[in-house]
């Protein structure tokens, strides 16, 4: 059942090429245009959407943050991302132009279910991105876009996260297509790059020795920080969450630009800092800014480890360790940069002798508020 791996988590990390491939499968026609028939909301109605609210918890909320960057960039529709449990207890502004997109692996998370119910009562249209067929959240939503990651057994989410991000890209591209915000050639180019992602994840999995070695050498760490910017920010948050959940180490993710607004005070001699590098091709030239962040924390004694695009020479000369991922377009990088951080957390927790499939105090599906 674990497919030859020692733990479900390791198996599920290795299932990720398939999870992304299966989530992409059958969602385009021969011309490369998106076909999401399962989204049973009339195209007319979808065209009238003026605002999107993404609701989710935990790892799924980090997938939601990636969704925001992608949908706003491709579709020019404003997107808010909110933790389900916060959303319901303020006075959120919802009208018939609001599309609520919930993201849930299990489809049973009570906080998210209650938030979706609340949004429906207020008149929102609801779409569920979900990994579990026939579960409650998709049943109660107007439409569902299933992720096809297959059953996720390990408590900590891995392959479902990559599948959620993939589904969010599909939704974003579909809305861009409906609203004519991207040319069909642009959409088919992005889809072609997405189709190459599974093989690239495979390459990362095959070349993971260096990150595993680092993880084993860091079993005594008491705190690890993660920095990222743009779509690397949610990846940093996810890297920190995986380390908390599996290795019970204090870990925090930050937006790299926030560093000098406070977190840099945490840096002292030997503090490990992971930096999720933006693509050198990022259109906002964030790369140089994040290289500066590496210099800033190093100057204060931090040990720096970067997850960066292969061939990123600037980072190579700055960070103590660099974990390379194959090249892809900047928006799609989370599907690659997440993987070394998952492996790092898994390996470090295993080195400490912890049960990575069933971390203490956690349940796979949180069906209470
Ligand atoms: C993290 C993790 C949790 C879940 C969260 C939402 O590894 O497993 O943070 O992501 O409880 O669960 P779903 O996606 O089932 O709604």
Name the bound molecules: fructose -6-phosphate
**What order do the helices and strands follow?**
HHHEHEHEHEHEHHHEHEEHEHEH
Report the average pLDDT across residues: 96
Largest sheet geometry: 5 strands, parallel
**Distance between the terminal alpha carbons, to the nearest Å?**
32 Å
Total helices: the number is: 14
Low-confidence stretches: none
What level of helicity do the residues show?
A: 40-55%
Q: Name the beta content range.
A: 15-25%
Q: In total, how many beta strands? A: 10
Rg result: 20 Å
Shape designation: globular
Class per helix and strand makeup: alpha/beta
Summarize the structure.
The chain is α/β, with parallel strands linked by helices and 369 residues long.
Folded structure, characterized:
The chain has helices spanning 8-14, 16-24, 43-47, 58-75, 84-87, 110-121, 136-140, 159-178, 184-206, 209-217, 232-247, 286-299, 313-316, 334-351; strands at residues 51-56, 79-83, 98-104, 125-130, 143-146, 223-228, 250-255, 272-276, 303-309, 321-325. It has 369 residues and is α/β, with parallel strands linked by helices. The protein has a 5-stranded parallel β-sheet with strand order 2-1-3-4-5, sandwiched between helices. Helix 2 (16-24) runs parallel beside helix 8 (159-178) and helix 4 (58-75) runs parallel beside helix 8. The longest helix is centred in the middle third of the chain and has 23 residues, at 184-206. The mean pLDDT is 96. It binds fructose -6-phosphate.
């Amino acid at each position: 059942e674990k497919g030859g791996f020692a733990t479900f988590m390791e198996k599920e990390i290795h299932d990720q090429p398939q999870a992304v491939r299966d989530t992409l499968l059958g969602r385009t026609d021969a011309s490369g245009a998106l076909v999401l028939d399962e989204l049973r909301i009339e195209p007319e109605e979808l065209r009238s959407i003026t605002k999107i609210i993404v609701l989710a918890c935990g790892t799924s909320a980090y997938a939601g943050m990636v969704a925001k960057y992608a949908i706003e960039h491709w579709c020019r529709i404003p997107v808010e991302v909110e933790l389900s449990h916060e959303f319901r207890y303020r006075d959120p502004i919802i009208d018939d132009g609001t599309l609520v997109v919930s993201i849930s692996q299990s489809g049973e998370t009570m906080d998210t279910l209650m938030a979706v119910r609340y949004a429906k009562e207020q008149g929102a249209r609801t779409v569920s991105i979900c990994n579990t067929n026939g579960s409650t959240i998709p049943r109660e939503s107007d439409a569902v876009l299933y992720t096809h990651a297959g059953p996720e057994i390990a408590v900590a989410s891995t392959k479902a996260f990559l599948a959620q991000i993939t589904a969010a890209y599909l939704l974003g591209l579909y809305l861009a297509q409906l609203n004519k915000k991207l040319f069909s050639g642009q959409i088919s180019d992005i889809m072609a790059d997405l189709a190459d992602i599974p093989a690239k994840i495979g390459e990362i999995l095959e070349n993971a020795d260096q990150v595993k070695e680092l993880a084993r050498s860091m079993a005594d760490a008491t705190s690890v920080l993660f920095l990222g910017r743009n779509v690397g920010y949610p990846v940093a948050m996810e890297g920190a969450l995986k380390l908390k959940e599996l290795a019970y180490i204090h870990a925090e993710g930050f937006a790299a630009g926030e560093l000098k607004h406070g977190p840099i005070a945490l840096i002292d001699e030997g503090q490990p800092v992971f930096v999720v590098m933006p693509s050198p091709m990022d259109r906002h030239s964030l790369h140089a800014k994040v290289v500066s962040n590496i210099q800033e924390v190093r100057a204060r004694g931090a040990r720096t480890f970067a997850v960066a695009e292969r061939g990123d020479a600037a980072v190579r000369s700055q960070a103590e360790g660099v974990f390379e991922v194959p090249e892809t377009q900047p928006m799609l990088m989370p599907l690659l940069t997440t993987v070394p951080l998952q492996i790092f957390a898994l390996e470090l927790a295993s080195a400490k002798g912890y049960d990575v499939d069933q971390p203490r105090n956690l349940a796979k599906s949180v069906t209470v508020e």
